[in-house]
Amino acid sequence: MTDWFRDTAFSGNLLLAVPVAALAGLVSFFSPCVLPLLPGYLSYVSGVAAQDLETARRGRLLAGALLFVLGFSTVFVLGGALFGSVGLRLEEHRHTLSIITGILVIIMGLVFIGLVPFMQREARVHAVPAVGLAIAPILGMFFGLGWTPCIGPTLTAVLSLSFATDDASATRGAFLTLVYCLGLGIPFVLAALGFGKFMRTVSWFKRHQRGVSIAGGLLLIAVGVMLVTGTWNDLVGEMQTWITGFEAPV
Q1: Where are the domains of the chain?
Q2: Where does the sequence pass through the membrane (predicted)?
């Protein structure tokens, strides 16, 4: 287990991909599909009316938020494991897959910016189950399975990174999507711990959501170009060289 964690945490691919995945999760949270709906999400998963969120017991809100994050994380991590596993089986087509997924990520970046109008429609489950803690994980799974135009592009990019790399595997795919879930989920937990203060803190992002979307889209486009041109794997190889150079002699 120790060897697996060391090899996973210090692989060149993950050292480069983990910050991208975490930032993609944060960008997803601050997107127009999530941040404006935060009071509604917390209300549903905790069973507390939206107008009472600031005065509700922190323990109840925290429990609801954690269960909600657990729900969508389960869906996303399983998806990451599946993509990584598929990538492992298609090892001989790695270069072609890198180009295809790079093009897909570029398209998703354009979608995130809003330059592909016909892909801006929501594609999510609209039926919402009864409110309360018991249903919070299920609502999280609905959230994960539904995907909206704001979340889908960033998650697609993360899945692509687990799919089209030389060291693709189910474990690495799951690990990468877990990092994405942390980037997306931690703000939910922070909001539950102090809803009023958190909403005042993120008011700047609410006023500049268009800028956040453009920045997120440009990040995806940059990653896509790197995959298409092979720059991503070149950087991975370079980082693996750095890591090897710093290893202590046995």
Answers
A1: 36-235
A2: 20-41, 61-84, 96-118, 130-155, 175-199, 211-232
